[in-house]
Amino acid sequence: QDDGPDPVVPINYSVEFTEAMDYFRAVLQADERSERALDLTEKVIALNAANYTVWGFRRDCIDALGKDWAEELMWVTELAPDNPKNYQIWHHRRCCLKKLGGHPDELAFLDDFLTDEELEDAKNYHAWAHRQWVVKEFGLWEGELAFVERMLEMDIRNNSAYNQRMFVIKHTTDMGRPVREREVDWVLQKIAQVPNNDSSWAYLRGVVAGQGL
């Protein structure tokens, strides 16, 4: 790994990482979309999952080789628990779903991911943002409010769940007065349970803002 002749903070790369990156730069420059190149991307990603160039080239290889995007989705699923906040992994997952036109188990995967007791990451921004994209992209609105309710039963302070409810309401209703009044009633019940919950108060402010309710 060459950081230039005069790096500000020299990084002591491992021999394995340096060799892998040298090989990768060579196949990238040659635009070699081969089985060997695809295998190399997996090795580089294992060493540095944040390298967006490697992810992009991996997708190019999969397309060029006619690989199964469903298998690729399974592969990236295996990486998620160890890299829950890695943007590139979530973006790659989205790319897989676009190629597949959706997947029947995607919401179930997200359900399990957000409720995994070992991960303890029920507010994971990347997972919730991905869930919003999936729901909107493939029209999977039905049952989403029930999912939010389950998440709030687990943790009534989960601001991500409140945000998801607002997202669903805004995209599935006209946000007219009857809807807002219903949402006020709903969130007041949450406030009654935990009066000092910033998340529920923020939701209330979002519902009534500028509406004179």
UniProtKB/TrEMBL annotation:
Cofactor dependency: Mg(2+)
Keyword Manganese applies: no
EC nos: 2.5.1.58, 2.5.1.59
Superkingdom of origin organism: Eukaryota
Keyword Repeat belongs to the record: yes
GO CC, one annotated term: protein farnesyltransferase complex
Record key words, sorted: Magnesium, Prenyltransferase, Repeat, Transferase
GO molecular function: CAAX-protein geranylgeranyltransferase activity; protein farnesyltransferase activity
EC class of the enzyme, as a word: transferase
Family listed: Belongs to the protein prenyltransferase subunit alpha family.
Protein's name in the database: Protein farnesyltransferase/geranylgeranyltransferase type-1 subunit alpha
Organism: Hemiselmis andersenii (Cryptophyte alga)
